[in-house]
Specification:
alpha+beta, 3-stranded antiparallel sheet, 3 strands, about 35% helix
């Protein structure tokens, strides 16, 4: 990603915590430090799985241990648990994608 301000193609991610406690990952230019974009923070990563094979585990740990289970839950869950896994995986992928481009 080229900086819109100085043309530099090197960026870094900085976590910003707002006064209300919300966390955001800001992508900034390594040279001029100007904000380029935001990456959605990994949401609800401390949510505890209430049922099933991994009952009592944090969904962030489940995703790291058994990604196939997380994907199965997304496709088969009748609750909002699938949505939580979807958001978590998308957040991880966005951060990983940016790190691979830097």
């Amino acid at each position: 990603m080229k900086c819109k301000n100085c043309g530099c193609d090197s960026t870094f991610v900085e976590q910003i915590i707002q006064t209300n406690g919300a966390k955001h990952n800001a992508v900034k230019c390594a040279q001029c430090k100007k904000l380029q974009t935001y990456i959605k923070s990994v949401p609800n990563s401390n949510f505890i799985m209430p049922y099933g094979k991994y009952k009592g585990m944090l969904i962030k740990d489940i995703t790291k241990k058994d990604l196939n289970y997380a994907k199965w839950t997304i496709e088969n869950s009748q609750t909002n648990i699938g949505n939580r896994f979807t958001e978590l995986i998308k957040g991880y992928e966005a951060i990983a994608s940016h790190k691979n481009k830097s």
